[in-house]
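Severity: low
Component: inverse-folding endpoint
Summary: output formatting inconsistent between runs
Steps to reproduce: submit the following structure tokens with default settings.
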């Protein structure tokens, strides 16, 4: 909105030049009839816009950590929302929108530190022949083949599970249209589908997951994917693969 307003003000400065511009009364009329509606287009009525901003700021205050200087005042305002004297803006905000800081859900942005090791062996082959040979020589008990792709304006993902060379299960998921999703997301969701099927299996000693996207198996992506599912307890080091 600020950028839009600055653009309109710049245009009116050009039109309102003293030597070659329009008369002041015409500029004022044009500004009220054209510039102001265009600058404020898409906004709510002012009372609703103010209420929306107040609610958003109140919700942000409820997420402050206990090390923030306002944390104690916020907790005090939440405990006594109906004071009749010495009412602060915090009391008004929490009482108006019925917010309770102690009931806010806390979620960690990162579940694992930068040195976290998932205990997996990642292999990236550069040519098709080597990849096919490695797949044929794979001795894992369970094999998963995942993929994500776009088709007819949509993005989807799938995962196929093989047990001793026999297809056992398939999962498919449609993320949405290509305006809001990318093929890369589909590749990552395919890995999540494979991990979901793996979590339902018992007595598995060796697993391999095959995916045709190099970006989807980079360490940064693995952090994101393994942060979605709960950590799986590890077995003995000799059994991990």
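Observed output (run 2 of 3):
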């Amino acid at each position: 909105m600020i950028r839009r307003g600055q653009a309109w003000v710049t245009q009116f400065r050009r039109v309102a030049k003293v030597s070659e511009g329009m008369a002041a009364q015409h500029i004022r009329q044009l500004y009220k009839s054209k510039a102001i509606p265009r600058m404020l287009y898409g906004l709510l009525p002012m009372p609703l816009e103010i209420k929306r901003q107040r609610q958003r700021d109140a919700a942000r205050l409820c997420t402050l950590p206990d090390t923030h200087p306002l944390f104690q005042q916020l907790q005090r305002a939440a405990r006594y929302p109906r004071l009749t004297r010495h009412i602060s803006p915090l009391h008004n905000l929490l009482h108006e929108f019925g917010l309770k800081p102690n009931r806010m859900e806390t979620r960690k942005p990162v579940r694992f530190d930068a040195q976290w090791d998932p205990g997996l062996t990642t292999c990236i082959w550069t040519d098709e022949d080597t990849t096919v040979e490695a797949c044929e020589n794979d001795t894992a008990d369970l094999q998963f083949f995942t993929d994500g792709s776009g088709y007819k304006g949509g993005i989807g993902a799938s995962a196929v599970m093989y047990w001793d060379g026999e297809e056992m299960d398939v999962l498919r998921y449609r993320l949405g249209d290509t305006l809001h999703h990318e093929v890369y997301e589909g590749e990552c969701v395919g890995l999540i589908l494979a991990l979901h099927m793996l979590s339902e299996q018992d007595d598995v000693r060796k697993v391999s997951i095959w995916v045709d996207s190099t970006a989807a198996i980079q360490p940064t992506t693995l952090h994101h994917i393994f942060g979605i599912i709960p950590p799986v307890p590890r077995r003995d080091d000799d059994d991990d693969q």
